[in-house]
């Protein structure tokens, strides 16, 4: 059993895809462990995306991720981290395969300089642990 942290980004919430994304998590057989809706601060994003803060497009990511509420959550299951990365598809929606969330619901490589791609998922056990603590303030 493994836990991963996920975000339904502002474009996913604004486009009414919350139910669709949560449905995919549930029908795949994963168990929701935590769920919340909130606005994000630039400070939290700088910590969350600590590897990207020095990239030229980082201010655009901040604009994107603070443009509306996000859904954050944790779910558990077998190889949850890698499975969710596969279910999300490639970072660039143009490269994401049909059947993936990004491949089914996003099409532009970028809008306003940031890549709008509906969802986030932790990329390792370490980042899952770090992101759960960062966003929920406790072990989930
Ligand atoms: P991931 O979300 O697939 O893990 P990361 O490389 O961790 O991809 O990037 C985090 C987020 O930052 C992406 O999901 C996307 O929204 C945005 N992003 C990543 N690379 C670029 C880029 O080259 N231009 C604009 N936005 C980007
Ligand atoms: Mg990432």
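^ Assign residues to that structure.
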């Amino acid at each position: 059993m493994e836990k991963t942290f996920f975000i339904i980004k502002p474009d996913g919430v604004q486009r009414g895809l919350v139910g669709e994304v949560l449905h995919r998590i549930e029908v795949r057989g994963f168990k929701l462990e935590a769920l919340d809706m909130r606005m994000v601060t630039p400070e939290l994003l700088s910590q969350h995306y600590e590897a990207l803060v020095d990239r030229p497009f980082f201010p655009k990511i901040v604009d994107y991720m603070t443009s509306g509420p996000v859904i954050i959550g944790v779910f558990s299951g077998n190889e949850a981290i890698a499975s969710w990365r596969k279910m999300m598809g490639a970072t660039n929606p143009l490269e994401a395969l049909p059947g993936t969330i990004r491949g089914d619901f996003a099409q532009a490589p970028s809008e306003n300089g940031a890549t709008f791609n509906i969802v986030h998922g932790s990329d390792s056990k370490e980042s899952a642990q770090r992101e759960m603590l960062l966003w929920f303030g406790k072990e989930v």
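Residues 125-136 form the longest helix (12 residues).
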